Amino acid sequence: MSDPSNEPGERTGRRWNQGLRGVLWVCGVALVIHVIPLFLPRNMPEQELAIARATDNVEGRLRFLVPLKHNDKATAADLRAAAELLREGAPAEAHDLALEAERRDPNALETQLLLARICDRERMSRCVEQALGKARKLAPADPRAELLRADLSEVKGDVEGATSALAQAYSVAPGDPLVGVRYGRLLSRVGRPQEALKVFHSLEGRVPAARLLVEQGLVLTREGRNREAVGLLQQAVQKDPKLAEGHFQLGIAWFQLGNENAAEEALRQADRLDVSDTRALGMLCTLQVKAGRFEGARQTRTDLERRFPQRMDAIREQCRLP
């Protein structure tokens, strides 16, 4: 007579119970591993910063970040990170943290740049100047202090101040392509095209040739020299056929010359090269309206709305149909 304990159903149930106990044991161990840190003292700056980053409101962040000022384990970098998290919502507390970061590491350029931004948020112009002055003394060959000055000036609408700051940054780092391109664009914007072209020429070999041709073409377009601009922009897209910005600017220049078909072709090519950008079709729609080609504009706007339903209001604002 067979042993009932050896019946297939009995053996299956026993194996299932053993498997379930194994799963529960693994889950229990994982739970303990995750819960134990909650009961340990949180005196490490990294922990406070991580919690603050996960906290949406400023009041909640203050509770974790302000005590870092008195935490001996907090480095200047930790204090700067904390100040950055509070800069918008609690600039006074951010200022205190940044000053403590300066005390712990007086030679950190990053601290002075952060202090300048915090002081600007607090509308303390003298404090901004002091921080930027210290930044220049700490790193005279680093253009970041003047680039920040240019940023702050542009936000206030002080184009002259921004131009002066970028001129200084360019003199400090003439070979920096980002500094040079930005300076050249601003020179063009303030009506100094020859100086802008000179800056762009100085960047040859440091910036892709097609990109430089686009920048030079934009200077000429701003000056109304559209035929010359078209020539440069055509060279740009020949050198780099996948440069969407080149086709985009070429389309605008062609329209200024009255060649609407060439303008549409260039803008559609720009759109094909970067389907995530609404600018090309948005510009095409605007130009079609200006040219009185309302049926084409209506179709272009419909295509945009279908592809970017979340931006429908902005699209309709940009391309208004009669």
UniProtKB/TrEMBL annotation:
<dbReference type="InterPro" id="IPR019734">
    <property type="entry name" value="TPR_rpt"/>
</dbReference>
<dbReference type="Pfam" id="PF14559">
    <property type="entry name" value="TPR_19"/>
</dbReference>
<keyword id="KW-0677">Repeat</keyword>
<keyword id="KW-0812">Transmembrane</keyword>
<dbReference type="InterPro" id="IPR011990">
    <property type="entry name" value="TPR-like_helical_dom_sf"/>
</dbReference>
<protein>
    <recommendedName>
        <fullName>Tetratricopeptide repeat protein</fullName>
    </recommendedName>
</protein>
<keyword id="KW-0472">Membrane</keyword>
<dbReference type="InterPro" id="IPR051012">
    <property type="entry name" value="CellSynth/LPSAsmb/PSIAsmb"/>
</dbReference>
<feature type="transmembrane region" description="Helical">
    <location>
        <begin position="20"/>
        <end position="40"/>
    </location>
</feature>
<keyword id="KW-0802">TPR repeat</keyword>
<keyword id="KW-1133">Transmembrane helix</keyword>
<feature type="repeat" description="TPR">
    <location>
        <begin position="210"/>
        <end position="243"/>
    </location>
</feature>
